[in-house]
Specification:
- This protein is of the alpha/beta class.
- Helices cover 41% and strands 14% of the residues.
- Strands 10-3-9-8-1-6-4-5-11 form a nine-stranded mixed β-sheet, with helices on both faces. Strands 12-13-17-16 form a four-stranded antiparallel β-sheet, with no helix packed on it. A four-stranded antiparallel β-sheet has the order 15-14-18-19, with no helix packed on it.
- Helix 11 crosses helix 12.
- The longest helix is centred in the C-terminal third of the chain and has 29 residues.
- The protein is globular and about 80 Å long.
- It starts with a helix and ends with a strand.
């Protein structure tokens, strides 16, 4: 203890100097974790000293609050622990995906924890929990026993010093932006973190959210986007339900998790083509490159763009509209627009219904039903515990058969999801990697390409069955983003990390028309090919795709619809949340049987996620099959008649309960 006190008296009295040195060291640590290399961090310092020092100054500013306390050592450790946590978390995330850690990820904490076992071993998770507990215990002991400064805090001087540091930080921030030392728009989040530093970029994802009010935003500006006569007489968009006589096809969007052509990545060879069926379909049907908004992660943002026609680049860096504005309000989308001309709308996903908050967001996007993993049987999983995609074929066909009219179905696959193992996990794989830059990459790609190969077989089965379906069907397929395999632009044959490939397949003879487009354009493009022009943003994309001011006006419309005054709708959004039903097939209780002292529930469409519930409380249940459940706890016989069936997802959230 005496040594600690001596250290304090000798070195910590000059808090400013100590804070500056500590900030430099902390920034070096954070960048080392981000680059997984001390040499890479030092190279960043040497090549971009102004950026490195600017980020160090940000860290230094946070240490200034130490001036308010006598337990300076304790508060230095607390602040340092937070920065270390940022560095370590970002480093771990970048080992598993290509998108760095953002403030928005903290809103996705529950989702992240729910799939942590897919990425990290049980031993690693236990070690992380133990480490957190040890840290908390250490902080408590440090608070109790760390020495205090003998002098009382001069709060006037300390607050004045903190204000000076805050003003200096603000000035440095503005100066860095004006001199282009750093940028405020991140076209590529991973590149931004690499070029502008982790502390600055992480804080930017906190400060910069939503869509900023465009310059010149006004009612007149919004209404002048469309030409006279294209909307209503007063220049607004009126939503009208139409009972169209014209026959339109069923429309299916199939978003394939991390699905790309592996042969586009240079430096690898395979024993055979990993995706022969998809490649064949690209030659026979309309296809091209699809520009998606993320790399290695961010499935929900590709969904958002293709459903709404709005670019997520208008939002803050790393933001998920699913986790922000769409939890609070509705947004015009293709599902809403197609409902106006008689379509039923369905979402399907072979993963958790509450992931990305989809069970809460999809009613605000106009879906009538949402079938998630909790409503599916016969689920086969990959070696990394993701549901395989083959079961989605029946789910899509069941959705179309569930209604008499035409259907819009948005299906989200999950089989191709990472993490991709760095050791061999597949025995006798269908496709082998015959050439790779390293042993670890060989096993990563061998696992990945075999998921692609199986997804390709699923696509063949799906198109074969839809070919025989007795209704017209359009099937739009594409990858949501590149896999989290640490790819670089130089490795890609098309030199683009933000491109996947799409196909517009049909069973009634659409003309083949190839072109490259963005995810926020593909919905309007598909509808245009089908002669459908319903929807505000559908009309906008179809009429103004190649016009001057295209993106600027799209951003103004998006702001008006989600954050502004709804001028384009006459002052009030016409879209109401749907009364969305979870699952296509109704879950029913037909009978409750007592055998001995045990109760059994007989019914229909039970799954492994079906639980017996009583007055909202989930009871201990055993799944015995799709028509029978067993109750594993005692209940009062008078309560038996009130028992219901709830679908309960992995994190114990109840998704639905029988009436």
């Amino acid at each position: 203890m005496e040594k600690l006190k001596s250290f304090y008296r000798k070195y910590l009295r000059n808090s400013i100097v100590f804070s500056a040195v500590l900030a430099l060291a902390m920034n070096l640590f954070i960048e080392t974790m981000a680059r997984h290399s001390l040499i890479g961090s030092l190279r960043f310092f040497a090549e971009s000293p102004a950026v490195f020092l600017f980020n160090s100054f940000i860290i230094f500013a946070t240490y200034s609050i130490v001036l308010l306390f006598r337990r300076k050592i304790f508060w230095y450790v607390v602040i340092s622990a937070l920065w270390v946590a940022l560095g370590v978390t970002n480093g771990i995330i970048l080992l598993n995906r290509m998108t760095p850690f953002t403030v928005k990820d903290m809103a996705n904490l529950g989702d992240g924890l729910s799939i942590a076992t897919n990425y990290l071993s049980t031993a690693t998770l236990i070690l992380a929990i133990v480490g957190i507990l040890v840290l908390v215990a250490g902080l408590i002991l440090l608070f109790l026993f760390a020495p205090k400064a003998k002098r009382k805090v001069n709060y006037k001087r300390s607050i004045a010093a903190i204000l000076i540091v805050a003003i200096a930080t603000f000035g440095a921030w503005q100066g860095a932006v004006k001199t282009k030392t750093v940028e405020t728009f991140f076209g590529n989040l991973a590149y931004a973190y690499r070029d502008y530093g982790v502390p600055y970029c992480f804080i930017s994802t906190w400060l910069n959210t939503g869509i900023r009010k465009p310059d010149g935003y006004s009612e007149q500006a919004v209404k002048s986007i469309f030409k006279s006569g294209e909307l209503s007489k007063d220049g607004t968009y009126k939503v009208e339900k139409k009972d169209e006589d014209e026959k339109h096809p069923n429309i299916i969007f199939l978003q394939l998790e991390s699905f790309i052509d592996p042969t586009l990545v240079e430096g690898f060879s395979y024993s055979k083509d990993p995706m022969p069926n998809y490649r064949k379909l690209m030659k026979e049907y309309s296809s091209g490159y699809l520009t998606v908004p993320s790399v290695g992660a961010g499935t929900a943002n590709t969904e958002f763009e293709s459903m709404t026609g709005i670019s997520v680049k208008f939002f803050g860096p790393g933001e998920y509209p699913y986790k922000s504005v769409l939890l609070e309000k509705t947004c015009e989308s293709i599902p809403y627009d197609l409902k106006n001309i008689g379509y039923s709308t369905h979402a399907i996903h072979n993963h958790r219904g509450a992931f990305y908050g989809r069970n809460k967001v999809f009613p605000n996007l106009g879906f009538d039903t949402f079938t998630s993993l909790e409503y599916m049987n016969n689920v086969v999983k990959t070696a990394k515990n993701w549901a395989k995609d083959g079961l989605l074929t029946d789910q899509m066909i069941d959705a179309m058969k569930s209604t008499e009219g035409r259907d819009y179905i948005y299906t989200i696959s999950v089989q191709g999801h990472g993490k991709y193992p760095t050791e061999q996990v597949l025995e006798n794989p269908a496709v082998s990697v015959t050439k790779a830059p390293s042993e670890e990459q060989k096993w990563q790609y061998e696992y990945y390409v075999n998921q692609v190969y199986e997804m390709d077989l699923f696509i063949k089965d799906l198109t074969d069955r839809l070919s025989q379906f007795d209704e017209d069907v359009v099937l739009v397929m594409y990858g949501d983003h590149l896999p989290a395999l640490d790819m670089t632009e130089e490795q890609m044959k098309n030199k683009d990390l933000f491109s996947t490939e799409y196909i517009i397949w049909d069973n009634f003879g659409l003309k083949k028309e190839d072109k490259n487009q963005a995810a926020y354009e593909i919905g309007a493009d598909v509808l245009n090919r089908l002669g459908i022009h319903e929807g505000l943003l559908t009309k906008y994309h179809q009429k103004y795709e190649n016009s001057a001011g295209y993106m600027k006006n799209l951003e103004m419309l998006a702001y008006d619809m989600l954050y502004g005054q709804d001028y384009i709708y006459g002052g009030k959004s016409p879209f109401k949340p749907t009364d969305m039903k979870m699952g296509i097939n109704p879950i029913k209780i037909n009978d409750i049987v007592k055998i001995g002292e045990d109760y059994y529930i007989k019914g229909e469409n039970f799954t492994e996620y079906s639980k017996i519930s009583l007055d909202g409380e989930v009871l201990d249940t055993i799944y015995l099959g799709p028509t029978i459940l067993g109750l594993k706890e005692e209940v009062d016989p008078s309560d038996i008649s009130r028992m219901k069936i709830s679908q309960v997802e992995k994190n114990k959230e109840i998704l639905s309960t029988t009436e």
